[in-house]
User: Fold these one by one.
Assistant:
Number 1:
Amino acid sequence: MDILVSSVVAGVLIGMVLALVALGLTIIFGVMDIVNFAHGEFLMLGMYTGLLTANATGMDPLLGIPVAAVVGYLLGVACYWGFIRFLLRGPMVAQLLGTFGLMLLLRNLALLLFGSEDRGVNAGLLVGKSVDFGMGVIVPATKLAAAALSLVSFVGVWLLMNRTRVGKALTATALNAQAARYMGIPTERMNALAWGIGGATVTIAGALIVNFWSVNPYVGLLFTMIAFTIVALGGFGSVPGALAAGIVVGLLMEIPGIWDSVAYATEWDWMMDVPVTSFKYTFVYLAYFVIMVVRPRGLFGWKH
Amino acid sequence: MGRKGKRTVVTLLAALVALALPAGPGRAAEKVVKIGVIYPLTGGAAAAGRELRAGVELAADIINNVMPGIDMEMAKSAGIPGLGGAKIQLLIRDHEGNPTLGADLAKKLILDDKVDGILGCYHSSVTKTVSAVCEQYGVPMINGSSTSPALTERGFKWFWRTTPHDRWFTKDLFELLKGLTEGKVRGVPAVPKEEIGTIASACEKTEWGSHVSGLIKELADQYGFKVRKSLLYAAKSADLSSEVRSLKASRAGVYLFASYTSDAILMVKTLKAQRAAPKVIWGQDAGFEKPEFRKTLGDDIVGVLTRTVFLPKVADVKKVAGQVNALYKKRTGHDLGGASARAFTGLQAWYHVLNKAGSTDPAAIQKAANEIVIPGSELVVPWAGIDFQNTGSEMGQNVLGSGLIGQYQKNDKGEIVLEIVYPFDLATADMIYPFPGWK
């Protein structure tokens, strides 16, 4: 029973963080219909920013989040003005290949700057600490903090999108860029802002994740795949959809734990012998495939 | 002809005379034997790569120079006497943990650099592809540190392995567990079988880890232990929390791992975060024995066991090990470990084989390798020696090797050190049992 509850709690917590990873992707896609293949690399840079800030200043890695947010925002905006806006003039395939190229560039830059070794945070206020909720449910403090801060970021972005003039302008650009231009909305700047927000949210997620996952220049690919799944499940362009889908994906990743809880509760040897843990990401990709086939719009999709 | 013209002619003539002179003794082209060394210098196992490289470079220095303070045959002369004092030249390449890249590098070393032999490759998966290339081209390869049993079960004629392999090491582990139940372990009264009778293992998914996982199941059956969970995970995983939850769910008394450095560190961190409380934690060398593992985790590894082939404590029973270790420590700042000691021994085997062969002709090297017996007194590792099997099911396997099991403990100075707990007669400290857990 404890393993079942532990797995569900872990799935929800990691799902909230993964939702933040996907949030930037869904905003960028929602505003300008462009799929950013370099999204995972933005996250990887966020992880390195959090890690290096903590190492350089000696402060807690969680305090590196504002630095990561600024780096992500500037990177997103710079990518848009320097690169993406030119891609928008080309066909869809140029956009895909362009962001794919950006992915390779960022990955290899990281390889050059940071080397290929895995690095992680080994010291910090919450690193190595756990919270015991009783019933055998023990949650690492870093994951708890990451989930809470992810939720705060989500609320912040939701308020920005729905309660401010800038957010309304962003939504207008997403719904109909041409009409928005007629209404005097500077859509180019809105696109850049979308990239900035997208970049900031994903680097914040990176700075949160580096507290409990290790980072290397190749780590982005896994997160890109997971983010795609979340966006597809939650619906392209939907902020609440990303949160709900993130939690669903988090739970999918915990299927092995749920399987084990049944295996050990029933003492069925054949269940124990099935190597479910080896396929923990397979369930996520399977869900992505099924959603694409059954409901391409996702659960909360609002774009057509 | 003006003065300037004369000076030019004189200069040209002088240059021509200088070129035509026979080369003096100082300018003789030094004879070298080229050994291609293929190790993981970047990537997840880069930490191990640094150790391997340092070990092999130290061995090359001892071969190429007279080193009076080292009681080894290869330290007594500069170069290889059997080859007229030829020096060893290492051509070190980085396979990044990638079997395909490893095979490409082997081809380049053989075809472009014309190496006389190959040494490598740490990862069993890379050794597998590289040795296949060597077999294809008939180039001798000595492997010092890959431990997948399958490597010497292929009947290869150009492949020799100095290190014992995982079947031997895993057997050592079960002997230790059996010894625990029989009260044979120093400082530990007999442990009831039910405390450690159940096992859960987590091994990385490449050639090496998958094999270890299979061996654990096989030997657990033989020794009467029950494997409650046996899982494989992707090497260089960014997160192992669901794996650790799975281990905890099994309620096993013994956790066994086969992990490379970054995974070993992450695994222990995750075990600590989830407050796992097994009685025994054992790692199959690799990541569990690297300086980074100790440096990163500090006190968190007190009580963790790792199999190894070399510990600085070996110096207490082997003088030559202490001599080489002191030299290694002077260069790198830390003691020899399983990886560096075996890399050193791998090149040492090359020296003895080449010396016996008296030629770099592959057939002569093959003959020498199949016939050679290197006494244990020559080696830094605590083996009876090196004697390659050249018939039967384990072609090319050294049959005189053996392993150690060490446990991380804190010494009087507060440093984390590895104490020998197995073999029982070599134990250097009381074993800490049960695993003390984490604060």
Note: Strands of chain A lie at 130-132, 138-140.
Number 2:
Amino acid sequence: MRRSRSFVGMLLALALAVTLSACTRPEPKEETGRELNIGATAEPTGLDMITVPGAGTPFVLLYNVYETLVKLDSEGTIKPLLASDWTLSDDRLTYTFSLQNQAKFASGAPVDADAVVKSFDRARADSATDSIKAKWAAVADVEAVDVHTVKVTMSRPSNEWLYDMTGPAGIVSDPSAVADLNTAPAGSGPYTFVKWDQGSLLRLAANPSYWGTPARFDPVNFRYYADPNAMNTAMLSGQLDIISNLTVPQSIGQFADSSKYTTYEGTTEGEVVLGFNHETKALSDVRVRQAINHAIDRKGLINSVWGGKGTLIGSMVPPTDPWYEDLSQAYPYDPAKAKELLTEAGVASGLTLRLRVPNLPYGPTAGRYVAAQLKEVGINVALEELDWPRWLDQVYGKHDYDMTIVAHVEPHDLSAFAAPNNYWNFHNEEFNALLVSADEGTEAVQTEDLKKAAKLLSDQAAADWLFLLPNIIIATPEISGIQENQVSLSFDLTLLAARS
Amino acid sequence: MTVLRRVGVRVAWLLGSLLLASFLIFLATNKLPGNIAQVTLGTNAGPGEVAALEERLGLNRPFLLRYVEWLGGIVTRFDFGQSYYTGAPVSPLIAARFEVSAWVIAFGMIFAILIAIPVGSYAAVRRRHLDGIAVSALSQVGLAIPAFWAGIWLVIVFAVRLGWLPAGGYVSYWDSPLDWIRHLILPVASLAVVQASVISRYVRSSVIDVLHEDFFRTARAVGWSRIGALWRHGLRNIGISLLTVIGLQLATLLVGAIIIEQVFALPGLGSALLTAVSGRDLGIVQAIVLLLVWSVLLINFLVDITYQIVDPRLRRRAEAA
């Protein structure tokens, strides 16, 4: 009897210990005030955007730690940043940038023409990733005219180049930095890098000597979660102020209480594409591709696959690009029309297509939906799920498929259809010519040509654009300035403020 | 057979298993379908980048040569190779992650044992009474609960509803000892609850056996109380079988910790493994898998050896054979 009492006592002591440790916990955010905790899923793989690929690095560092001569605002317009203004020569071959006089790096060194030239030379060097180098392909020369003026000479006119300068390819880093930029980023932004606990946390602190509007939060912690549900519970328990992208739209209901959470739903650059292999005999016929476009109820697909969240687009352009045009009604859901087109094409019965999808969150479910709908119009679909490496190897690399579903998340990726060996086997001279003239023309010409190019893809039913991935952000109500649409690769902290 | 000889045979078996495991892991990660360099770099990589990575990782050299170098690096220099993605050495990463996993697993096991011994003994001694049956039934329920499920409920109650403890994440002891404890309580509790159920059932049945032994009856006859006799003679006798169970459970705890680290967003080996798998960083994957498999083999070996040395009955049986 005495023993059992002491056992109960032990349990009580344990419970007391838990309670005590709970009572002594530090109050999370009310007291420290301007600390900001942001939940994210894609962790950087290194900290130097020039030599390490991946979207995780610019998400944290671009515009926050590193600055560019020009930046994208929340509407997707190019605005001055380190360059106070710039001019373009009449032949569209020479850009002259005037730099902000007062801009300096966190080390105190000035952001002068020399630093810009050194940074740009680094981006053009062999050590840069292929995708960074590609963005500099149209540039012949970069030179310092005087301390505050930089001249960039192009080998051919390119609108895309100035746009690319708003991203990782255009960052200006501190030439006086002695440490490796891959472990110790050094820029001129409102935040400085503090530490990176791989697998868990990346911390930024306010740069006290920032030349522009000072940082409003200090410190800022990007917390990483491999499991999106763990991120949700961290938000629910008050450990986070912001979920930077909710990748399980079905769980949005957990944040329905508007007194505690504000939900932002915008667009991303991620087009979920039902791609056709144009070399498959049946799919080389435009009528068959159009029939498939008519046969799939895309609204229904979003509802069943992605919790009803997402935007119908109808071509390879998100609504945030200036040349966006709503083409989502080009092929309304019409199974009868689909059957008609299949009959015209002579494949009304017995057509079997292989749909090979990667096992990413949207792939298999979207695949089953598509297969079921195509069966309704008489197309048999052999559905196959591949893990990502096999998808890359067989579908993307070897073009061994009839249809596939994958999200294309890069900005301005209309040009993917013009790539020489693209995995859709789509080749159209008129389309390629439009892209070239858009890049070389004026802004008006660019918008006009890219609209035509997008329309051409739609008319050709080059693919079936199922939907555009949504950008769902959850924040506590005291955070303001959240950008609904993800237009750049950056999670731009300079736009955020705390309501007090 | 002498003890030394039997230990020698087992060491040979262990070395063979360790070698075979390392070969299979290296084979599997290297012979998976797809060009490893292309897989690592993803869709945005150009042919130049792919070729450069193949060159850097030495993927164009003979398979066996690469295997021998990899294993040699681990055995001679604790060099677990490099990340296929960043080229950074894997060993420091593993060391940092190992610390987190080790705390969770060690505390999980210690608390499980601390709970299991009194609970199991109590259930055995009181097995004909309602409270003993209730305790026994409760541990049966605990047995059926997966650790991650327990973890999710602990988070819902203690983090989301009550707000007493953090829902996840990790703070190093050196940064803040108090925060370190607070972040470990829930993950350790979810592992310990489940482990305690398993171990307490072994304790219960072993104690019941002891209760029927002659020496126990003798102890009672000379005036020891039931609990006292159990403490004095019983626990010593169930120690060996308990050791086996704990060893085996340690292996399952390793696996359980991988999932628990996901639930609580702990930066341990398990979450590093999952991140590496989804990012296809096979350099990290093969290093962590090797470490986990080797740990399990080693634990089993140690249990086996201790068992052989400690239990005289086994020794006698082996000598008779």
Note: The first helix of chain B runs from residue 3 to 30.
